[in-house]
What does this fold into?
Amino acid sequence: MAVPGDQIRVALIDDQQLVRAGFRMVIDSQPDMSVVIEASDGEQGVREIARVGCDIVLMDVQMPRLNGIDATRRLTDMGDTPKVVVLTTFDNDDYVMNAISAGASGFLLKDADPEQLLAAIRTVHRGDAVMAPKATQRLLRHVGPLLRDGTDQGETRPSLPAELTPREVEILTAMGRGLSNSEIAETFFVSEATVKTHVGRVLAKTQSRDRVQAVILAFQTGLVRPEDLLRGV
It folds into this structure.
């Protein structure tokens, strides 16, 4: 199927046919995106992505033959890869943490409504948000303690790059707390374009492949703590 060059090309990798059918119906109804790949397991999905190519992958975690975490890791190892949005129910933090480590760029509840699905695809594709802020904060409340605990068990805790400016550290802190670009702009009384510039510099200086990796660094370095989110800071 031919897809216009300005469309977001989406791959659906899920072993539940009804889930794929529902997502496809929603995605294909949009003028700026289209499903180009469907696969029922990770192995088939990785093979088709290598053959056809896509921009965003909606990846289930539990699948036969090759699970979503290992499939995400394979895609990440391929180099110039699409961004992976992991489908999760938040019922197993280990799955989410392993997906982050494998290179996932975003997260989506499997029972998300159509507006949330479309927003997640667009924002992850732009690279300026992991997901809607409230969903991001829910995720971070779940996995934040695990991010800190993982560096408390004999591992060397990473540090912030020395070249980050004080304002960039403030921006990274706000990102770690789940704020969107518009919310960061309101917090610091600057334009959203200025925030995007700062975020881009933060990603470059921290060598983060996307926003979620920068958020992980904010937790691992102690810049943001799970208690901050629980208090609503």
Observations:
- Strands lie at 8-13, 33-39, 56-60, 83-88, 106-109.
- DSSP finds eleven helices and five strands in the chain.
- The chain has a mean pLDDT of 82.
